[in-house]
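Is zinc ion placement plausible here? Inputs below.
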Amino acid sequence: MTQVAFAPDVFTWPSDAPQLVGGRCPSCAAVAFPLPSACSRCGSTDVERHLLPRRGTLYTWTTQDFLPKEPYASGETPDTFRPYGVGLVQLGDEVRVEARLTESDPRLLDFGMEVELAIVPFRTDDDGTEVMTYAFTPVQGPGSE
Ligand SMILES: [Zn+2]
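Reply from A.M.:
I modeled the complex. Tokens:
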């Protein structure tokens, strides 16, 4: 099966250890995701490509219980839609990133829990190509650091 990323240069992939591609401003050290064309803090246009930590902590989260409006483009219909979690993940002391969560059960999510980047199927195109996106998945068990 063919798999493609939903957008170029948003995450490193294929990889056993994918990372989100952010940007770091050499002038003021602000880190942003996705990679911006200019620094939102100081306006510098010299923002450098900067790979973000793979693991972070769940700062806050919610669950998406209904099909989002266009342009969502997942190919899902109200009949095929399945709820998913959406989290704001703190990556190190660098940046907070909003992303899908692989877990949508509120009982299995907790503020401050450790999560790790995963690349997951987003939709399947008519020709069978799987379009991949990024999500965070809870890190299981003690001593997993
Ligand atoms: Zn800056």
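Short version: The chain has no helices and nine strands.
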